[in-house]
Amino acid sequence: MAIEAIRDNLLRSILTLLGIIIGVFAIIAVMTAIRTLEHAINTGLNIFGSDVIWIQKMPAIRIGGHGSMRKYWQRPNITYDQALELRERLTDAQFVSVMDGRGGRTIRAGAEKTNPNVEVDGADEYGLESFNMTIADGRNLIPEDIRYNSRVALVGADVLDKLFPYADPLDKDISIDGIRFKIVGIIEPKGALFGQSQDNFVMIPITTYIQFFSSNWTSLGISVKAPTREAFDDMKEESIGQMRVVRDLKPDDENDFEVTSNDALVETFASFTGGVKVFAFGVSIIALVVAGIGIMNIMLVSVTERIKEIGIRKAIGATRGNILGQFLLEAVFLSLIGGVFGIILGVGVGNAVTLFMDIDPQIPIDWVFIGLGVCSTIGITFGIYPAYKAAKLDPIESLRYE
By the 8 A CB rule, do 236 and 53 touch? Predict the structure, then answer.
């Protein structure tokens, strides 16, 4: 009977449903999008190698405009000599590596060339391990390459596909800004992260990179690998302390460098998305409360229109509980129907980010049940008064109502 009553007033019911649909859609869409991104972060944001601490001048995640970043730009650059000094001090580290990169480069090989979007990275023999990469063919950089500023290169899959689609690239020459390098190694493809390829780069010895591609603005990055997982936190603290000594900081000076790791990146992202979740949930609850007021209003109208029906039902034996249950169920059905449509739309729109990024879609099952629970609560809360008003009507007065 509750469903039939909703069907008999279809247009009015649909208009009432819109408020519920919009409220649930908002919260489910945002939570789905965030859950999808969190899944991609937790499974794909493995930028640094295991137990690797990354030290650099600028924050790894930059939020804000140029004004908020000014203090970071004003920091002194991290130099190669400072990296070597830190390496000497961190005797317990498994390795201390140095790296830097510049994008927007065109790589040539004979008549072929790449788009001007290739990144050229300078690294030492630990560079690949620092960034969780491996050699697919050929060899890695070796200490002699670093010591003698060798013009050798490790090449990513995207560059190879463009320059050597049908040929073996090992021992072939490539040109970067007119400087020739010999390919000695091919790097195992890592795929895309957030729709951005991680294989569109060339890696050369850090000393060669500094010689040909550095400038007054170049600030190197230093990676430190802890000897064991258990020693990670101690190694991080030691790295900070020794870096302060290398940078000649006084005890009361704040750090003029940033220290991060895979775990820190995930925690930073989680803290940011946590605020978005709270805000979205608050806005959605307001929308649902407004929709609940609409449900109460429409149910009061329904009670007024159906006073005679209520009188007839009571006259043939319907109890107050029967009447209360009927009108309460109408309110709950309205809320749940709107909630289901809102969830379907929210999951669809929330997963729209997967169309632009190479990540898997997600369905936030917990928030689906939370959404349905909130809808039921809204229906009961705002339907109880109209239902109670209908249940307490006098059957004689109801039958005489015109």
Answer: yes
Q: For residues 366 and 231, state if they share a domain.
A: no
- φ and ψ of 134, to 5 deg: -135, 165
Decide the pairing of beta strands 192-193 and 196-197.
antiparallel
Q: Alpha helix locations (H) across 74-198?
A: 80-89, 127-130, 143-147, 157-163
DSSP 106-128: -EEETTEE--TTEEEEEE-TTHH
**pLDDT band (50, 70, 90) for residue 400:** low
Domain tally, the chain: 2
pLDDT of residue 315: 80
As a whole number of angstroms, the distance between CA 232 and CA 228 comes to 6
Q: Do 102 and 213 sit in the same domain of this protein?
A: yes
Residues 36 and 106 in one domain: no
Q: Is the pLDDT of residue 147 over 90?
A: yes
Tell me: do 306 and 340 sit in the same domain: yes
Tokens for 220? 């190197």
DSSP characters for 267-309? Answer: HHHHHHHHHHHHHHHHHHHHHHHHHHHHHHHHHHHHHHHTHHH
Show the domain range for 370. Answer: 2-44+266-399
Q: Which of 13-17, 143-147, 338-342 has the highest mean pLDDT?
A: 143-147
DSSP secondary structure letter of residue 99? E
What are the tokens at 8? 């008999």
| pLDDT score at 235 | 92
Do 238 and 90 lie in one domain? The reply is yes
What is the structure's pLDDT at 359?
64
Q: What is the mean pLDDT of residues 342-350?
A: 84
